[in-house]
Write a structure and sequence with these properties.
six-stranded antiparallel β-barrel, about 350 residues, alpha+beta, Elongation Factor Tu (Ef-tu), domain 3, Gyrase A, domain 2, Alpha-Beta Plaits, six-stranded mixed β-sheet
Length: about 350
Amino acid sequence: MIDPVEPSLRRSPLDAAHRVLGAKMVPFGGWEMPLSYAGGTLTEHMACREDAVVFDVSHLGTVRVEGAGSRDLLQRTFTNDLAKVEPGRAQYTHLLDDTDASVLDDIIVWWTDDESFDVMPNASNTARVRAALEGHGRDVTAERAIIAVQGPNARARLAAVVPEAAAVGRFRVTRFEWNGIVGVAAGTGYTGEDGVECALPGAHAVAFWETLLGTGIRPAGLGARDTLRLEAALPLHGHELGPGITPLQAGLSWVVSWTKPGGFRGREALERERDRGVSRLLAGLATEGRQPPRGGADVLHSGKRVGEVTSGNFSPVLGHGIALAFLPPDLTVGTGVEIDLRGRPVPATVVALPFVKKKG
């Protein structure tokens, strides 16, 4: 029998399906979500790198912004430029703090129709993003599920269930129909592999999930999602993005459009940092042993503290520890440093990112 969870935690439409599969459930961003299933995180990780897995990412927010003026509202709020894309496309962007240009959230925008956008914040940031949009937009998170199929064989397996979704291009958006139900698919994901994220009404999520599992796709939880995104050097809000961290420090200047008319929230503060130069940059570190570096560990160079690990773990693909850390810009690739793991300095080397590249 499963013990009752804290009442304040939200549950995905797939909650019961996860429990039937024996998932280990954990709190995450105000939700109770699967950490891993019976096979464990390592098995799920390698299945994504070598074949295909399916994640429940319904904890992500969805703020639907519709009607005249929607595009202009998003343009003046977020850092990227929607003029680079068009309806039927998705775009990665940032919401910045006006004072210091900290990344309040990193967001995917699905541009579904001429004047209709699904703004996808991180789990705990939906209310913040909606407030930044001046109260416009409707929070439809509770109405839908989002299911992500990821891996080199993701599209081939998904095509057996919903060919229209499987055919969607990278960072493109399309509608699909499955068993009379209309959903939206985007060629996006958070693993470094190819894949598709499917949004559909929550009432039909379990049937869709079970149909996907019937094709041989393995379920995967938050544990594998984190180790996969770390190998791909994808930032996680609260670690590589957040208070005191700007897009320029995180190496994400490509998310910022300096030329779009009207600017964006936090532009003046970010311009000041651009003009004076950043004092630190996100970098990759590799250790020789299997012991995983952990977030919060000090990074030392010539005996002095020069930075801090933001995320670290054992890389199942590489077979050794990897970490992301903010370091002085002059500590370039090949530089030797140490990571202080509870008073024990572990040798590490600054390496190029990503740690693991997508096959093909």
